[in-house]
Task: structure prediction
Amino acid sequence: MAGKSDKKSISRPPVVVIMGHVDHGKTSILDYIRKTHVADRESGGITQHIGASVAEFQGKKITFIDTPGHEAFSQMRRRGAKIADIAVLVVAAEEGCKPQTKEAAAAIKKAGLPVIVAMNKTDLPQANVEKVKRDLEKEGLLVEDWGGNVPAIGISAKTGQGINELLEMILLVAEMENLQANPDAAAAGIIIESSLDHRRGPSAAILLQEGNLSAGKVIATASALGKIKFLEDSRGNKIERLLPSQPAVAIGLDAVPVTGEVFQEFESLDAAREFVIGRQKEIKSGAAAAETVELQEGQKNLNLILKADVLGSLEVLKETLLQIPQNEVVLNVLDGGAGEISLNDIKTARAAQAAGTTAIIGFRVKINPDAKAMAEREKIRVMNFEVIYEAIEWTRGYMGRIRTPKMERKDLGKLKVLLSFWADKGRQIVGGKVIDGEVKKGVKIEVFRNENPVGQGRLINLQKNKKDIPDARKGDEVGILYEGQEKIQEGDHLIFYVQEKNI
Result:
């Protein structure tokens, strides 16, 4: 969201994205700033949606966007970086740069955002600020006191140490960026998050980037439109008039919009509808025809139906699942959406079972009681998770359980052929001595001549002293009934083996 300057433009609050590794304190910092307790409500202590809120410092507003830190949310973090003016990269002072720290740093640089480093947990005895700076240098972020241009501030989300200095730096960077917008222009912005509220209908968390927005105005994205019924802030309070850089929850759209879509204001519902129809035609005509995945020999298919509380989580879940290696089990996402697991989901899964194993994965959603009963009756596997990477690990494990097992050869023993008695119609009786391991009835045989393999067959019967025996061991002289195409000769070596499933 770049700053604009024209005769009608005015200064606007900065939009700040908070990024960093999981558990490094991003949400805790925001909690201290806005005096809320979001972290206490998050499953596993991990923020799993992009959330936006407004804080005030020294009489000036700052809009914060909190992005998830776990590795599964890379796409969501990238989206957060695209809509912000300034990035705050949180690094735990006792740990330094971790995988998601490095990924976040790369996303920030790619987006061209001014960045401020917040070195959290500097109050801990094991904090190592110099190590953090060295780690940052490796990621192309040279802090100011090392001769670079990246501000780095030591803070503690627990005690509040350095928080005011961090906010002052944000306002200073914002002033240098000269962030402006026209509040009188037609409203335009971006969908931060979206979901289906069973009481209120489609719900969209929006960030206004230009103009102003209020109840009664018509907006549309490429996938949804509607007249705004009301707007509310992150605490559920009604907003009379939304201004640039402000976030809100908008109620009144006719469908759940796609996360990351831009929205704009229209004069009427008819004009908005015409726009949506046109955009849908463009999308359909520009989309490549869906490719039918043909299973290779030995491959199996796992059909998935995905349900999540919000579309942003659904998007990330789908993307991450499809990154799982699919050499032996091919994933096919049949359907997905926001909201509870319904009867229609169960019916879709039932219809798909003929084409392969099918499962429904829910993320932070409920299952309709009728749907649950039908799933149990039809033996449809339904899994529900509160933490997204647990869903990923379950899917990975389930793929391992249903894959076509590999057959692995296990050599049992070796016999030297001493005599050849009889051969007829692919069968032969030979005598020999077990020189290694053991021999069992029913196992496979590979014939070696002069150390070269010449044929394969099967051990039909095993005798010792003209009596049938189930097995023989090293040193035993035995007679065997061999079945195979290659005629065994004296001096050949027979390798006895089995094929086992490698699960």
Summary: The longest strand covers residues 406-424. The chain has four domains: 10-179, 188-280, 310-402, 407-502. Confidence is low (pLDDT under 50) at residues 1-5, 286-292. Residues 151 and 256 are 40 Å apart (CA to CA).
